[in-house]
Please model this.
Amino acid sequence: MSAAVSRDLEFSFGSEIGYLDLVQGVSDGVSALAGFDTDSQYWIGLAVREAVTNAILHGNQEDAKKKVVLVFRICEDRLEIIVRDQGKGIEGLDIPDPLDPENLLRPGGRGIFFVRSFMDNVDFRVAPEGGHEIVMEKVRSQEKRGKDDDN
Amino acid sequence: MTIDTRTADGVTILDIHGKITIGEGSAEIRNTVRDLLQAGRKKILLNMEDVSYVDSSGIGEMVSSFTTVTNQDGQLKLLHLTKKLRELLAITKLLTVFDSYTDEAEALSSFSS
Model:
């Protein structure tokens, strides 16, 4: 693969929790294609699952008519994943630090923390197409990039 | 997710099977724990050996069950954490909250009378 070329996979689905297993399966497949080992596939998949859950519950307010768009982009140096909702993303959400001793026993508030924990770069922004999106990146090592030549 | 319930040495052991995730009936643990407390069974051991996957919602469910039991002067402990679940509890600092065991007999004997 040349440095300028990336491989993209993009699809959308209604805001239903029932799609999470499918989404995670796709994430595992793309991560494997990008050369990540099974452990990394697992953690990337969990980050994707949490980001999509967030988009469904908070971004789209579980409105099944609103879509979640998921983009996987295998670039030379990284795997980029975008989760886009048609709502407000995490805007307005009060997410206290789950590691603060005062918050350890709160039942919620760990989803975005997991996203940040398992990905190398995470950005939240207004999507150019409307809505909000989470952009997550996982760095590909030189060894992983070498696998592109085999595909 | 399914839960099998058994008792040993006065401790209720919940053998949890499958995924503890949003949309997979994660509230089932909370409901089972609530029913046990109402029946006066306050020593509860969650056996996680056959748990295949846990997300943040599942972690929240475990925390919620823990606080419910503790607030009623009971004890809730964990048995046979999988490697991945242990990592999740470590990064969320919850390993410092939960008592966890790798041996069932040791776990049972840890409950105070």
Summary: Chain A touches chain B at residues 17-18, 20, 42, 46, 49-50, 53, 98-99, 104-108, 110-111, 113-114, 117 (CB under 8 Å). Helices of chain A lie at 20-33, 38-59, 111-118, 142-146.
